[in-house]
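anyone seen this seq b4? input:
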Amino acid sequence: MEKVTRSGFVTLIGRPNVGKSTLMNHLIGQKIAITSSKPQTTRNKIQTVYTDERGQVIFLDTPGIHKAQNKLGEFMVKIARDSLDEVDLIMWLVEPSTFIGAGERSIIEQLRSTKTPVILVINKIDTVKKEVVASAIEAYKNEYDFAEIIPVSASKKTNTDELMRQVFNYLPYGPLYYDEDTVTDQPERDIVGELIREKSLRLLGEEVPHGIAVLIDSMKERHGEKYDFEEKPTYDVEATIICERESHKGIIIGKQGSMLKKIGTQARKDAEKLLDCNMNLKLWVKVKKDWRDSDSDMKNYGYYEKKDR
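predicted toks r here
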């Protein structure tokens, strides 16, 4: 008798910096999406896969929904909004507060136009008292008819097992979309580029990161005469960090190249761990003024709509 499983697509939406990427990384048990304390860290739709005996969940981590200030911002918001009708289940992440602002109300209005079931995930419950969480649940319950309301802490991994149990409950029965060992459909070069951007976000000041992109110029596997295919592969990677101003270029490079070296070292270590490889990473910095308002530049740097299904 063939095993019956559930499988489907689940999108994570929410305002910037509510912990979507942190939660997704925890749920799949591996870091795929980059994280930082800065808003709008996620710029594109990142697809990851979780498989166990119950079936398979394909998570779509989307950019935070915010008021766009440029074409890149408009692209990010469109990616997030379009995902609502492409999936079997929506997970909306909010912070534990009774204040429901204009941003949250805008999301509620968008949810009213979809028939997709919505699980409200109240994240960061480790940062407030239980009474505050209870009040937040009541406040949101009065605003929308959610399929479930589940309080969690993505960083502390609190109540995430219950969240996954409910996710499977709302998925349809069906075959697996991916092999059981698949964790993401992200190409390796995209993963490396995102890790470089993550380290830049974490190490640089407040103004610079919003104006940077990362372009992987080349990523080649090294094959020697005595190459042992049982050993870890070695990649030679050349990448360029794009920024919008000459003054930003100097900050990214740092005194005698110290900042650029630090970014490269941290990104290389994470990439080697994630891709189970050895890596020789070389970084350059290039200025491209106002690239976030250029359709052609955005496309060159990977910010364009990609069809998944």
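Residues 34-43 have pLDDT under 50 and may be disordered. The first strand starts at residue 6 and ends at 14. kinda curious what u guys think
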